[in-house]
Amino acid sequence: MKDSPITIGFDDSKFQLKSKIKTTQLIGIICQGTRLVNVMRDEISIDGDDATDTLIRLVHPHVKEIQYILTDTITFGGFNIIDMDKIYAETQKPIIAITEKQVNLESVEAALKKNFPKRYPEKMLKIIIAGELYETEILTAGGVSKVFYHVKGASHQEVTNLLERVCIDSKLPESIRIAHLIGKAL
Strands 134-140 and 143-152: what pairing? Predict the structure, then answer.
């Protein structure tokens, strides 16, 4: 792995569930190591099913340069859940979905059943496809931090090595952290 791996990190912009506006922005940030290289965005549906295809569309113009796809969890715009297998298959780039805390799968399943009775099976399948939620520890400016993640296309050691190179002040990689900051401002 290069000392400054090229990553593309994704997060969504803020949104309100009970609003007349039914879309939000998916923000993509390309970093070489921790240095910002490019910014992109596109619209996704709140609680929809278009985050996977939108993410792939944003990655494709840069697929030759980037080495890893990073996401802030597997959900965007509420329960617009990405299909990690499809993203990996169509980009041939490792994808790592990072979360800062352990996920209560029973609570997520209950929320999906309640809010999406007709679409529950397909949404739950994407969560199952994401696979096990793994844990690692990395050293950041704030000390040792636990990080949880789903991964397709990379080993656990590779994920830990990558996170140690692209996380500075936060346990989130810089590309995701910047996408999050931009998303908060929109």
Answer: antiparallel
